[in-house]
């Protein structure tokens, strides 16, 4: 943009003048504004140091620290206490590697099983809502799988047996994993929920959609 079109013709003598008048008064012309800017620049240090918050913290007097502490307590502030997981509770690298390899082998077996199996069509699993899914998986076993329910004593709902897992339409798998994660946040990461998540991950297509990955990370953080 043309400077002269915005500011008009500026006289060099006006620009170079060091007479800024009252520095607190607003500039009434472009030349006066530039003179004020130049004057401020002359008195500004070449290097400006930012105050370190740690220096400020160290400079507080005992009385000031006490008042600050009292105020934080009055507003309900609670300092986060950093806790570390004992090393004895962290799975070893060998254990994690073995479990990942085992999971990969199970997935391959399921791929072979899916290729040879015609999934059962169960009316209750065509388009259930979240409440219905909760009832099917965690509350009440479907009649079609009552004969194998005794093999899964930890489940009151329909157990994650292979015929049941393969009967779930693939279009529901991602949403169903998200439901299970949400239920775990409300009801706890129970064994039935853990086993159902594991079973669905054995048959779901890869790559996982971002919402499922995010949900699983939330479960891992718990």
TrEMBL record:
<dbReference type="InterPro" id="IPR017364">
    <property type="entry name" value="GEMIN2"/>
</dbReference>
<protein>
    <recommendedName>
        <fullName>Gem-associated protein 2</fullName>
    </recommendedName>
</protein>
<keyword id="KW-0507">mRNA processing</keyword>
<dbReference type="Pfam" id="PF04938">
    <property type="entry name" value="SIP1"/>
</dbReference>
<dbReference type="GO" id="GO:0009792">
    <property type="term" value="P:embryo development ending in birth or egg hatching"/>
</dbReference>
<keyword id="KW-0963">Cytoplasm</keyword>
<comment type="similarity">
    <text>Belongs to the gemin-2 family.</text>
</comment>
<dbReference type="GO" id="GO:0005681">
    <property type="term" value="C:spliceosomal complex"/>
</dbReference>
<feature type="region of interest" description="Disordered">
    <location>
        <begin position="1"/>
        <end position="24"/>
    </location>
</feature>
<dbReference type="GO" id="GO:0032797">
    <property type="term" value="C:SMN complex"/>
</dbReference>
<dbReference type="GO" id="GO:0000387">
    <property type="term" value="P:spliceosomal snRNP assembly"/>
</dbReference>
<feature type="compositionally biased region" description="Acidic residues">
    <location>
        <begin position="11"/>
        <end position="21"/>
    </location>
</feature>
<dbReference type="GO" id="GO:0000245">
    <property type="term" value="P:spliceosomal complex assembly"/>
</dbReference>
<dbReference type="InterPro" id="IPR035426">
    <property type="entry name" value="Gemin2/Brr1"/>
</dbReference>
<keyword id="KW-0508">mRNA splicing</keyword>
<feature type="region of interest" description="Disordered">
    <location>
        <begin position="45"/>
        <end position="69"/>
    </location>
</feature>
<feature type="compositionally biased region" description="Basic and acidic residues">
    <location>
        <begin position="52"/>
        <end position="64"/>
    </location>
</feature>
